Amino acid sequence: MAEKVTDSEGREDLVYIKTEDGSYRGWRVDLLIDPLSNKMEEKMLLCSSCNGMLRDACFYEGQVRCGVCIPEGVAWQPVIMNREIVSDKMISCPLKKRGCEWSDTVTTVLHHLEECEFFPVLCPLGCVCLDGERKGKIMKLEKRRIPEHQRDSCPLRELVCEFCVNEVKACEMNPHLEVCEYFPVPCPNECVIEGEEATRQLKRRDVPVHLSNECPLQKVECPYWVHGCREEIERKKMDLHEREFMHIHYRLSMTDMKLKLIDSSQELLTLKQNQIETNDQLDRATKEIAFLQNENENKTKKLSKVNHMEEKLATANTKIENLEKQITEKDSELKSIKEVFYSHTSLPTGQLEWKIIGVKQKIQNKENTFSDPFYVGLYKCQGKIKWNSLNTGKVGVYISILKGGYDNKLHWPIRYKRTLIILNHINSNNNYEITKQITKEDLEKYPDNFKRPTEMSNKGCGNCSFISNTEILEAKYCKEDSITLLIKIELLPAL
């Protein structure tokens, strides 16, 4: 899994004061463009606990402190004036030493670091460092250097082999060239093209064919090998060998032909003996066939009676098969009904409470998320979430109609009123809620969304910009990296 850059090891380290217990307190004063001018201003704007510029200023025991510096469970009173003064202070980018010239109010610096071209980010391709403090970990570079890194130096970038035109990772190019079938290699016998001095170059895949059919230096068997000549000669010298040893090849050929003639005579004698035995066996078989034909006539008469009984049996089996089909259809219909009324996700009240965990990871990976199937009446439905839908930075929530075993009993197209709610963990009376009723115009504009499903699922219908990624990560909705989405569906009468 790719390494993540979190606030705790990135942006907050740059803008807040980090204490020994690992918590983050007030703003770093050294980032201010105009330093605090006098003791009065320091007393008004600096936290008496962490000595950083006030963050959520409040009174505690007669002193002004950051809200995060006060012990847990202690009530405190906000200082509105201090908040306004601090929020207007101009601050430079924490990465100024690297070359960033940005400056603005303190309230915008965290947002700036999300886009800052000098902020270190992980290589998108996941290449790792080979030395240094981050050896073995995914390489970090300034955001502005990522395109150049991916283009020129990342070992995991895709390159095109100049010989086979296949895409290969840069770190795997050398091993690939050692096995590439189109890579030029010299002839193993170091033969040369006529009129040239350099060794012949071949594609690696063509070497076996070259040695078998073309290479003049490849040793091959003499054509008279089958007759007894056991010489292996270079292909270019074979003609000379045949001319010099012509008389020996002739004697070997004649000797071989005489031996084969003797073997053929013996085989012919054996075949004649086998023919006599075969004729005797054929006579015996003819007599046995005549006897079996007589018996077969008697059995045919008995078989006709059996066939009549088999016809009756086949008719009975057909009736049984029809009854079994009817029973199977009824079982399937009963199974569909049980699935609706006894499934643990069945919603007779038309409401699904869906807890979604790992929200930050899903948003970062733009990972589509699906709920378990659930029922509204006898309609089978499923919830779906698209994170960063349409690259707008917002979350899309959709309802899809799934194919169910009771669809032939239902009315189509389906109409319903949906209510999508994200529960507020802090104030249950302030949930995020959107309600939409399917109208006649919706049925005409998106007929495939509400008709009887022919595939496993219809197209989803919902809100492509339900809520932004930033809002959904707020503490009131996101608790322990999870949110709870409540889906209410009320079936409406047909138009």
Automatic annotation (TrEMBL):
Keywords: Coiled coil, Cytoplasm, Metal-binding, Receptor, Repeat, Zinc, Zinc-finger. Pfam families: MATH_2 (PF22486), zf-TRAF (PF02176). GO terms for molecular function: zinc ion binding. Residues 268-340 form a coiled coil. InterPro entries: MATH/TRAF_dom (IPR002083), TRAF-like (IPR008974), Znf_RING/FYVE/PHD (IPR013083), Znf_TRAF (IPR001293). One of its GO terms (biological process) is regulation of canonical NF-kappaB signal transduction. A zinc finger (TRAF-type) spans 112-168, 176-238. Residues 112-168, 176-238 form the TRAF-type domain. Residues 349-489 form the MATH domain. It comes from the Eukaryota. One of its GO terms (cellular component) is cytoplasm. It is found in: Cytoplasm. This is TNF receptor-associated factor 3.
